[in-house]
Write a structure and sequence with these properties.
CATH architecture of the largest domain in chain A: 3-Layer(aba) Sandwich
Radius of gyration of chain B: 23 Å
CATH architecture of one domain in chain B: Roll
Number of domains of chain A: 3
Strand order of the largest sheet of chain B: 2-3-5-6
Helix content of chain B: 10-25%
Oligomer: heterodimer
Number of strands of chain B: 6
Largest sheet of chain A: 7 strands, mixed
Number of strands of chain A: 15
CATH topology of the largest domain in chain A: Rossmann fold
Helix content of chain A: 40-55%
Shape of chain B: flat
Chain lengths: ~475, ~110
């Protein structure tokens, strides 16, 4: 008898499909109505940071250089008040085998899949992660399937995602190019069930532990080179894995006081599941369409419990406009001779503005770059945006409205950031958590968990709970 | 030595040709609930590439063997499909950024 492959049926089997495909029983970590033991779940990885570095070295992952952006720093100082303008460094993750930090994220999953005897791996991703999984799978002799959201209903593909299809196919992967819709997850589950492959989800403990080496290396390199920990690390923020893994790694490198800033491209107003809006955005990752929902509720991913929990680590959350990131991409190429991104330069754009608030002796590290190429390049994206009815203008990007126009800064002084108030983000998280509660009472365990989840205080959490009519009961 | 054939404009394919198939994965009525209206009214579709297992014409229902050796069926929509994404057209305004930032750097503040 063949299994029912309808949407409802497959989604109904998701827990059992994922349990088999990840090899983790997520129920083992649950502590309360909301609470689960996050560190115990991360412990499921079973390897310390030294062992993970060794595993990554086997496939050429990691050990990326840190480059001081002297000219970009000098430019920021020209625009900053006297005595301001932190030194800006970048960790050149583009030199990883498939061209981004995502190799770190894929490496451990593919290694574990190989160790456990799975014949192949599957990832549902339209980003660099697909190429990373495909590349790692090629190195370890595993089969690979990548499921991507590529086209709108007119059959028009986002050039950046078409480039990522090409790269996955270049490494020998079977690529499923889908039209727009969240049922990407359904196709992913259906393929997992059909093939018995390992789920190389972006959100397992393996994926996040793989990124910890980035933060660990970064902290260690800066300490060795400059004798101090980085003052600030700016991280391009989407689903939360990059931020979570990097922050955890920095902590392990004895940099507990380094401030963690998440930066996303502002796509406010565009609906991520909309067929019409799909080709009206010029960034397919590191944008608010992912970072807002995932920061304020991480457990919406393709795993029962998400290992990427960015709000636990984030000190500031910043947005920048699309035009600003394109400008910064050009500046990086022209002033530093590094042709990278553009999506990976989201954090660099934020860094350029943030550095101007900081003292000259402070150290600001942008923790990634990504390869560029046909499809990704600003020219491709800006031409494509124009073809899709977006106005390309020059002026103050503050006026930019995603889906309507892209405003390239007329001058470097227009590179500015928008602060997302952390209290508001934490409040949104708590209200999402309250919606998931089975009753109007939380236990002490849940309360402690919510404080950890929001990097806030007991008072703050209690206040929001009380305002929402939730009482705190005994265990 | 065997010469690679060009596929330009051909609408009949041979067994073993690299090809692209199209599938309707979910009809509008089968899609997830709570989709925006524009997405809900169109099907979820999929394109996959592989080697044709038999001779076929464009538009035929065919079977392909993918890069990892799995067989998948769908409608034949392209024979030897190319990647057509590019670096796009130059943007003169954008290209002035380099000289502009170098000018600011040289300015005595």
């Amino acid at each position: 008898m063949s299994a029912d492959l309808s949407y409802t049926s497959i989604m109904g089997r998701s827990t059992q499909i994922l349990k088999k495909a990840v090899g983790i029983n997520y129920d083992d970590f649950r502590l309360g109505a909301l609470a689960f033991d996050y560190e115990k779940m991360m412990g499921e990885v079973g390897y310390g940071i030294d062992e993970i570095q060794r595993i990554q070295l086997e496939t050429g992952v990691g050990g990326t250089p840190i480059i001081e952006l002297r000219n970009v720093t000098a430019l920021a100082r020209k625009l900053a008040p006297k005595g301001k303008g932190a030194r800006i460094f970048v960790k050149d993750e583009a030199v990883n085998p498939s061209g981004s930090f995502k190799d770190r994220r894929a490496s451990l999953s593919v290694y574990v899949a190989q160790q456990k005897g799975f014949p192949g791996v599957i990832a549902a991703t339209s980003g660099n992660y697909g190429a990373a999984v495909a590349s790692q799978a090629a190195m370890r002799g595993l089969k690979c399937i990548v499921v991507q959201e590529v086209f709108d209903s007119r059959g028009i593909g986002q050039p950046e995602i078409i480039e990522k299809s090409r790269k996955c196919e270049a490494y020998g992967a079977e690529v499923h190019q889908l039209s727009v819709g969240p049922e990407l997850f359904y196709v992913f589950l259906r393929l997992l069930e059909e093939t018995g492959f390992f789920s190389a989800s972006l959100y397992t403990p393996f994926a996040i532990a793989g990124i910890e080496t980035l933060g660990f290396e970064l902290g260690t390199q800066i300490r060795k080179q400059e004798g101090v920990a980085p003052t600030v690390v700016v991280i391009a923020h989407a689903g939360g894995g990059n931020l979570t893994g990097t922050a955890r790694g920095l902590f392990k490198a004895d940099c507990p006081d380094t401030k963690i800033i998440g930066a996303s491209v502002d796509l406010t107003g565009l609906h991520m599941a909309s067929d019409y809006d799909f080709n009206r955005k010029s960034f397919t990752t590191a944008h608010t369409g992912f970072s807002m929902p995932f920061t304020t509720w991480p457990d919406r991913a393709d795993v029962p419990l998400n290992a990427a929990r960015s709000l636990r680590y984030m000190d500031r959350f910043i947005t920048v406009k699309q035009g600003t990131v394109f400008y910064m991409t050009e500046m990086l190429a022209q002033l530093e001779g590094l042709e990278r991104g553009p999506a990976g330069n989201t954090s660099l754009a934020a860094a350029f503005a943030i550095a101007q608030e900081m003292d000259e002796n402070a150290i600001l590290v942008v923790q990634e770059t990504e390869y560029t190429g046909a499809g990704k390049h600003p020219w491709t994206q800006l031409s494509f945006a124009a073809e899709n009815g977006i106005d390309i203008k020059y002026g103050d990007p503050k006026e930019e409205v995603a889906g309507k126009n892209i405003i390239i800064p007329e001058h470097s002084r227009y590179i500015q950031v928008n602060e997302v108030p952390m209290e508001k983000v934490r409040g949104s998280y708590l209200r999402n958590a309250i919606d998931k509660l089975p009753s109007k009472t939380v236990t002490e365990i849940d309360l402690d968990y919510l404080v950890d989840e929001t990097k806030s205080s007991r008072e703050f959490v209690e206040k929001i709970l009380v305002e929402s009519g939730i009482s705190i009961g005994l265990k | 030595m065997k010469v690679e054939k060009t596929f330009e404009g051909r609408n009949n394919a041979k067994k073993g040709d690299w090809a692209q198939i199209f599938q309707v994965v979910l009809k509008p009525s089968q899609r997830a609930p709570q989709l925006p209206d524009d997405t809900a009214k169109v099907p979820l579709t999929c394109l996959v590439k592989g080697f044709l297992t038999d001779d076929a014409d464009l538009g035929d229902m065919v079977t392909i063997t993918t890069a990892i050796g799995r067989t998948i069926s769908g409608k034949l929509v392209a024979i030897n499909p190319s990647y057509n994404h590019s670096f796009g057209a130059p943007l003169p305004g954008f290209m002035r950024i380099g000289s502009e930032v170098r000018r600011i750097l040289k300015d005595v503040s």
